[in-house]
Amino acid sequence: xxxxxxxxxxxxxxxxxxxxxxxxxxxxxxxxxxxxxxxxxxxxxxxxxxxxxxxxxxxxxxxxxxxxxxxxxxxxxxxxxxxxxxxxxxxxxxxxxxxxxxxxxxxxxxxxxxxxxxxxxxxxxxxxxxxxxxxxxxxxxxxxxxxxxxxxxxxxxxxxxxxxxxxxxxxxxxxxxxxxxxxxxxxxxxxxxxxxxxxxxxxxxxxxxxxxxxxxxxxxxxxxxxxxxxxxxxxxxxxxxxxxxxxxxxxxxxxxx
Length: 257
Prior knowledge:
This protein is of the alpha+beta class. The protein is built from seven helices and nine strands, in the order αβαβααβαβββββαβα. The protein has a single domain, classed as q2cbj1_9rhob like domain (Jelly Rolls, Sandwich), CATH 2.60.120.620.
């Protein structure tokens, strides 16, 4: 094995170790710069179709974007990527699958939270699900379409449970426990669904001028096939997506309980 290949393999293994140990890690240069440029162009061509769900006038969000043929190629860019598949094979086994939880965000902030079902939708998890027992089962892959320094995590929090009624319980008491994860365009962030993390502050976009280079993230979630947490996250996310569609896209949809 050449020195370059050896270094690449070592970096890959180290990132996998960090995901398991800390709950998240950056895998560098998973996507080419041509792919990043193409993805940005496709998203910017379709931002008018995406609802504004935050106070910033430039903010856009499309939940479950993989369902739209115009945007589905972005999902395939992630799921067909050889490195992503290799990562998921290591973390979730040979038959890892997506669960319908995909997002495109443009200039959109998110305070401290876990990507578990929260609020009214936490009931889909059931009382027998805990991070202590079920971390290492479901993972989000986030593709940054520009460099970023806003992502922060609390290492080891994927093993700890918090109150999921609201995101207030996720806010760290001790800031010294917070670790930033700098990301470059084309990197893939892999984060355990149980990890407490945050992105940009709302103030970062509050006065952003329209037309200024937007911050765009594309993500989807994988789970271990046959795992209870995978199945329950999929079911609860379907209910949450139905609610999101009704609220933000003005669709007249039945509420399923």
